[in-house]
Amino acid sequence: SLTDSPVILKILQNWVPRVSHYFDKEHYTYVGHQIVIQESIEHFGAVVWPGALALSQYLESNQEQFNLKDKKVLEIGAGTGLVSIVACILGAYVTATDLPEVLENLSYNISRNTQNMNMHKPEVRKLVWGEGLNEDFPVSTYHYDFLLATDVVYHHTALDSLLATMAYFCKPGTVLLWANKFRFSTDYEFLEKLCNIFNVTILAEFPESNVKLLKATVREN
Fold first, then answer.
1. How far is it, in rounded angstroms, from Cα 59 to Cα 163?
2. CA 112, CA 119: separation in Å to the nearest integer?
3. Which of 2, 75, 146, 218 matches a 20 to 30 Å C-alpha distance to 20?
4. How far apart are alpha carbons 72 and 137 in whole angstroms?
5. CA distance linking residue 51 with residue 180, whole number of Å
6. Mean pLDDT of 188-209
7. β-sheet bridge partners, residue 95
């Protein structure tokens, strides 16, 4: 339940900012690997948000609790791909998804940071929340051990579609890990809706960044 006390953490400054006028390349280190992320100022999805840093850090530090090795992992709203890259390094079969306009930068970051490594080759796919799920990801074929989402809830109109997408992919046995910066009442309203359909626990809070990391699993009747 949400009453269990979450771990209080701080997002560690484990990257070196390098500034250029258009494409920012951010350098991070997770699980002993340097990860270089190209950001684009044109899209929300092309910037590394604090939830992605929080979840990456948490996955790195809690490999016994959440062992991703050889697990099937789907990231929705993957953005720049940082979390998917970390999941890859941790040994998962990763499918990173986002809107069509973000995929080029996402693919670039993922291939650049995972090539020449002894790991499962990640896949990048288009996924528009709530659209064509049965056609593109039929239940008979696709089952994921983990569903990852970071900073997917903010001021936008697709929250019902997002919830429907989470519900679609969360089958019995799937663990949803969602990290988000909580700023607006809409963020808390979404959390309330999530609690109505899933078993939800707050795993960690990062108070300085207003980020909460939640774990959700489907209620089995």
1. 23
2. 13
3. 75
4. 13
5. 5
6. 95
7. 74, 123
CA dihedral 153, 27, 24, 104 (to 10 degrees): -70
- 23 pLDDT more than 70: no
**Closest listed residue to residue 2, CA positions, set 167, 161, 213, 179:** 213
Dihedral sign of CA atoms 108, 180, 50, 161 in order = positive
Walk me through the domains of the chain, giving residue ranges and CATH numbers.
7-218 (3.40.50.150)
**Rounded to two decimals, what is the model's pTM?**
0.90
Query: Closest by alpha carbon to 153, among 220, 208, 216?
Result: 216
Output Rg (C-alpha) for the chain, integer angstroms. 16
Q: Is the dihedral of CA 179, 185, 189, 192 positive or negative?
A: positive
Residue 191: pLDDT band by 50, 70, 90 thresholds? Answer: very high
Q: Are 179 and 7 in contact (CB under 8 A)?
A: no
The amino acid sitting at 3 is T
Residue 149, number of CB atoms within 10 A of its CB: 26
* Per-residue pLDDT at 212: 96
Asked if pLDDT for residue 20 goes beyond 50, the answer is: no
